[in-house]
User: Which sequence fits this backbone?
């Protein structure tokens, strides 16, 4: 067994174990940390497959931003684990159906040994220029509209998430910007005339 095959099977085993830990972990923080480990091992496998851009993007975007946000949210919220477990078995049948579809797709791809033929010029360009340059060239030329559509969908999802989670509280003090800009000295400042007292005269008396 070559060193490349050994590292691939090693990281694959760690990835499967981390994925199972995400599913069966009772503590949400432990599940999030296991997901971070799964992302790291996936990035290592992509490095073995010479997909450097995808590996770096996975670490920077998911591990560096998304999972840090997940950890902050999980640790700041008071999650009632008993309440979460009440409807756990209600989702067993949909989970089995989705898992079966994923497993069937993997069996078709791996068992059937589907091979995607690459043109000779594309393979030569990847060898000489690298897959990062080729990926960027394809995204901004042939798949430009699909790339922009995906960006718009993500933007709509962000706005929808903010709109769904926005809750107006009665005790929240809101700031009216127009009133602040229209403020003048006459309605904000009041000068009171007070008589001057002579302290020395009072002390002598």
Assistant:
């Amino acid at each position: 067994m070559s060193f490349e095959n050994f590292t691939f099977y090693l990281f694959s085993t760690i990835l499967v174990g981390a994925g199972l830990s995400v599913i069966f972990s009772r503590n949400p923080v432990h599940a999030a940390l296991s997901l971070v480990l799964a992302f790291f091992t996936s990035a290592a496998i992509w490095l073995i497959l010479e997909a450097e851009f995808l590996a770096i993007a996975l670490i920077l975007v998911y591990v560096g931003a998304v999972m840090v946000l997940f950890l902050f949210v999980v640790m700041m919220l008071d999650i009632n684990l008993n309440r979460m477990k009440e409807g756990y078995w209600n989702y067993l049948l949909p989970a089995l159906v989705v898992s079966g579809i994923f497993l069937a797709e993997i069996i078709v791809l791996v068992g059937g040994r589907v091979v995607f033929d690459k043109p000779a010029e594309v393979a030569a360009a990847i060898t000489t220029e690298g897959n990062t340059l080729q990926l960027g060239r394809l995204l901004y030329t042939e798949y430009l509209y699909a790339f922009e559509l995906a960006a718009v969908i993500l933007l709509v999802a962000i706005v929808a998430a903010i709109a769904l989670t926005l809750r107006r509280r009665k005790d929240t003090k809101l700031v009216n910007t127009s009133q602040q800009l229209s403020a003048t000295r006459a309605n904000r400042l009041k000068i009171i005339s007070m008589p001057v007292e002579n302290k020395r005269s009072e002390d002598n008396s």
In short: The CA atoms of residues 160 and 166 lie 10 Å apart. Residues 52-76 form the longest helix (25 residues).
